[in-house]
Amino acid sequence: MKIIIINGPNLNLLGKREPEIYGNQDFEAYFEELKTKFPTVELNYYQTNIEGEIINKLQEVGFTYDGIILNAGAYTHTSIGIGDCVKAITTPAVEVHISNTFSRETFRHQSYISPNANGVIIGFGIKSYELALESFL
After folding, report:
1. Is 22 assigned a catalytic role?
2. Which of 23, 69, 72, 99 is 20 to 30 A from 114 (CA-CA)?
3. Each residue of 32-75: pLDDT tens digit?
4. Of these residues, 22, 30, 45, 65, which one is catalytic?
5. Which CATH number characterizes residue 33's domain?
6. Which positions ≥6 away from 101 have C-beta within 8 Å?
7. What gap in Å lies between CA 28 and CA 9, rounded to an integer?
8. Active site residue 109
9. Distance CA 3, CA 136 (A)
């Protein structure tokens, strides 16, 4: 099974950015833990702060991978293009958010990805990625 985690803007700052919301662990260390915990899964990781690069990556993997775990960060709430891309590809995608977006600012309650995703996992901290991964197994 081949799964990719795609992280959007500012998620490269996990472990440093607002630890009261996002925790203290950096994503690269967590990703290594996931690879160890799920050794039979070919797990890949991609992070970018650029909206078009998320779309390019989704198009690149969206017809050949078995699953996409997508945390588009703030683009979740603004990018019709990313939402349209998730709709256009055939690889199932699970939308993930570390924080409970519904307990935060009102603008975070809207997602352009959710209507096109196979599922949404919100608010379980960094463990949200593991829950998304388990949903593919």
Report:
1. yes
2. 23
3. 999 999 999 999 999 999 999 999 999 999 999 999 999 999 99
4. 22
5. 3.40.50.9100
6. 76, 108, 109, 111, 122, 123
7. 15
8. no
9. 9
- Residues with Cβ within 8 Å of 122's Cβ and at least 6 positions away in sequence, in order, are 96, 97, 99, 100, 101, 102, 128
Range of the domain at 89: 2-136
User: pLDDT digit string (tens) for 75-114?
Assistant: 999 999 999 999 999 999 999 999 888 767 787 788 999 9
Which of the four pLDDT bands, split at 50, 70 and 90, describes residue 24? confident
Catalytic residue among 45, 75, 97, 112: 97
Query: Which pair of structure tokens corresponds to residue 63?
Result: 């017809």
Give bridge partners of residue 70 from the DSSP assignment: 6, 95
Which amino acid, residue 108? Answer: R
